[in-house]
Amino acid sequence: QVQLVESGGGLVQAGGSLRLSCAASGSILSITARAWYRQAPGKQRELVAAVTSGGSTDYADSVKGRFTISRDNAKNTVHLQMTSLKPEDTAVYYCNAGYYSSGSYYPLDYWGQGTQVTVSS
């Protein structure tokens, strides 16, 4: 089992920044990749950013150039630095543990509790 705990959400004005963190514990040696998803009201959960154990990253087109995912392997923590935030970034953000296969990220059923990010216009 893997436990994921997120922190860092909140309310910010458009154009502002927030940094999310996700700490992992448990059977983390089995986890090779981590990611952030988000889910806005009435919408499906979507992949925002992912990072491999080696530090390679992928981003949704909607956040490229604004969000940066990084990981601290020594602390088993993944961060999502969000800048130039827009109202459409408002969602609950979830941390996930998964793996890559053939260049695509696949989530395992390990999720954090979610953290609310609200961007006001």
As residue ranges, the low-confidence spans are none
End-to-end distance: 40 Å
The structural class is: mainly beta
How would you sum up the global shape? globular
> How would you sum up the major sheet?
7 strands, mixed
Compute the CA-based radius of gyration: 13 Å
User: Please, how many helices?
Assistant: 0
Quaternary organisation of the protein chains: single chain
Helix content percent band: under 10%
% residues in beta strands: over 45%
- Give the overall pLDDT as a whole number: 95
Number of strands: 11
Order of helices and strands: EEEEEEEEEEE
Q: Which helices and strands occur, and which strands form pairs?
A:
Blueprint: E1 2-7, E2 10-13, E3 18-26, E4 33-39, E5 46-52, E6 57-59, E7 67-72, E8 77-82, E9 91-101, E10 104-111, E11 115-120
Parallel strand pairs: 2-11
Antiparallel strand pairs: 1-3, 3-8, 4-5, 4-9, 5-6, 7-8, 9-10, 9-11
Question: Which terms would index this structure?
Answer:
single chain, 121 residues, mainly beta, seven-stranded mixed sheet, 60% strand
